[in-house]
Amino acid sequence: MEADLVIIGAGSGGYEAAIYAYRRGLRTVLVELSPETVGGNCLNKGCIPSKYMRYGAHLIDRFGIMERYGIIPKGFDIDYEKLAKHRNEVVTTIRENFKKFAKQINLPIIYGRGVIKDPNTVFVEGPEERIRTRFILIATGSRPVALGDLVPDGRYIFNTDQIWDIKEIPNKVLIVGGGAVGVEFAYIFRKYGADVTLLEIQRRILPSDDIPEDSARYLGRKLRQIGVDIRTRTTIKSWKKDPSGVRAILSDGTEVTADFILLAVGRRPNTEGIGLEEVGVEKDTRGFIVVDEFSRTSVRNIYACGDVTSPLMLAHKAMYEGKIAVSHMIGEEDWRRDNRIVPKIIYSALEVASVGLTEDQAEDEGYDVRVGVSSFVTNPKAMDDGENEGFVRIVADDETGEILGCHIVGPHAGELIHQVVHMMRKRMDVEFASKTLYSHPSLSEAIGQSASEIHYGPITWIKR
What is the pLDDT of residues 311-347, one digit of tens each? Predict the structure, then answer.
């Protein structure tokens, strides 16, 4: 078989790159392990099923304020079997729709393990298919990591791939890792009725330099309000099986029992056993593929996207990199990777969204910084919706007014952030943002108000 492009991996990055390559006229072949793994981790084991469950948790939250709207609730029951059934139906429908669409546009998907034999040849183990190609895009994704003697077994210790196999909501769960995945599952399990203990070895949850401490603190306060037991600077010292599940001794000296332990401590790239070393594709010390601004590897006609390129493991980042790679393959050089405009969204008891630089990062880079903050507490739309918690925080260059970053905590933060992403991509400034028209009442008004705090001076927030 011959092609212009072979994409190894039909997850978020590979799928989006394949569709874009089809639009741009490249004869493309997708290689994926099996029909059940099309869509990758995000669809099958990650962001799609977790957002389904997160929405259910959010509905339970909404149930708690119905009386404000004159609706007197009479209680509800949790049926996890129905939840899992409908969640899985959504996943299956999305996966099957993609396979049908690929067939409609004559985009072949070959099932098996793709191995790069040389810069122009991919061999698919299983069907024993050899494909000659001009370009190769590696989009093989990632897998969960273990932690010391906390080895996932799908019974006492689960990783974030295995958690979808549970048959009921636990009575008690111990979550190790207070990053994006850990705080998401802490919220989900707590709202569905479980007692949740959340451990984070760093001094705060969401311990990423890209997430401001204010955002992490605000979310932490909300999680504690709903009953999540958050322990920072804490990990598991030892554990053992117990008739009720597990019994763990923590590094703070306390003992916690739980039905099981959920490991939410990160993932590693799937870059072994696919022929990278044999053809000379460079990897860093952590196993990530080194790519340039066009998503190109050290081998000129081999590209990579998604989880295999950096610890910033986001589906939309994979899609972005995949399309940039295809664009470069056909000779275009005006589209280049810029991680500064990749939004990071956390879906927990509140949505937490960030793009660009935090205030500390901007100052470390030598900017004189101005910050504008607008609270959702007094936002009319947020008040109408009973979700008036959180804020919009814009970080700008004091001299030029250029927007360097934006950080939102509160309702629909993951949607609102895109307005600022587009402004940053076009190097728009706070004057533009402050003079843009926003409908009323809307959550988006908070963006204009935050920009006005910088451009015209603060009137609703104490100047830093």
Answer: 999 999 999 999 999 999 999 999 999 999 999 999 9
In the numeric block, which tokens belong to residue 220?
């932490």
Residues 156-184: what's their mean pLDDT? Answer: 97
CA 205, distance to chain mean position in Å, is 16
| pLDDT tens-digit series, residues 257-301 | 999 999 999 999 999 999 999 999 999 999 999 999 999 999 999
Q: Under CATH, which number does the domain 157-265 receive?
A: 3.50.50.60
Q: What is the DSSP letter of 312?
A: -
Integer Cα distance of 349 and 261 in angstroms:
20
pLDDT tens-digit profile of 225-237? 999 999 999 999 9
Read out DSSP for 388-444?
A: ---EEEEEEETTT-BEEEEEEEETTHHHHHHHHHHHHHTT-BHHHHHHS---SS-TT
How far apart are alpha carbons 171 and 178 in whole angstroms? 20
58, 328, 412, 440: the active-site residue: 440
d(Cα 191, Cα 222) in Å, to the nearest integer?
12
Straight-line distance from the first to the last Cα atom of the chain, in angstroms, rounded to the nearest whole number: 63
Using DSSP, how many helices (H) and how many strands (E) does the chain show? 13, 22
Q: Are strands 121-125 and 236-242 parallel, antiparallel or unpaired?
A: unpaired
**In angstroms, what CA-CA distances link 351 with 124, 135, 317, 357, 358?**
41, 39, 19, 18, 17
**CATH 3.50.50.60 correct for 2-143+268-339:** yes
Q: Which amino acid is at 317?
A: K
Same fold, 2-143+268-339 and 157-265: yes
Q: Which helix (H) or strand (E) holds 245?
A: strand 245-250
The domain limits of the chain are 2-143+268-339, 157-265, 350-455
Q: Tell me which residue of 329, 330, 317 sits closest to 13, measured CA to CA.
A: 317
Considering the segment(s) 350-455 as one domain, its CATH architecture is 2-Layer Sandwich (3.30)
Q: Which tokens belong to 381?
A: 């739309």
List strand residue ranges (DSSP E) for 279-390, in order.
Answer: 302-304, 344-347, 351-356, 369-375
Hey, which residues does 116 pair with through a beta bridge?
A: 122
Strands 129-138 and 2-8: parallel
Quick check: is 440 catalytic?
Answer: yes
Using an 8 Å Cβ cutoff, are 301 and 279 in contact?
Answer: no
